Amino acid sequence: MLEISPLRPWDRVKWEVLARGYMAFYETTVPDAGYEETWQRLINGGELYGIAARLEGEVVGIAHYLFHANVWSAGACYLQDLFVDEAARGQGAGRALIEQVAEAARERAVPRLYWHTRQDNAQARALYDKVTHYNGFISYVLPLD
């Protein structure tokens, strides 16, 4: 049985395994201390939200999201990270995580939920194309550090 819920303090170890998997997929490195800092920001409330997908009680997927102002509307919700353990893919966890974030956005009355993925992320895009449509935009990132 699939359950979606906020991250819980005892999810820390499995969350980090999945977060490291996400970062490895995107060829991004984060210092060890960065995982602890991010965990604290997610678990202590505030502007960042973290949820988990659980199959039979085991965390198999995570999503991180935030709300922000938008010049042309009443705000937006950004699904920053979404990652499901490879062994659990195809069982509905990714879709359920997206649906939970969408529900949170509806509760906040923001009219837009969006996210990014790599162009070559075919497996994720197969799901995303079922949930919504590709809008043709390309994302650019300018690192400032």
Automatic annotation (TrEMBL):
Record-given protein name: GNAT family N-acetyltransferase
Keywords: Acyltransferase, Transferase
InterPro entries: Acyl_CoA_acyltransferase, Bact_Acetyltransf, GNAT_dom
The enzyme's E.C. designation: 2.3.-.-
Catalytic class of the enzyme: transferase
Domain N-acetyltransferase residues, every copy: 2-145
Source organism (scientific name): Streptomyces fildesensis
A GO molecular-function annotation: acyltransferase activity
Keyword Membrane listed: no
One Pfam family linked to the record: Acetyltransf_1
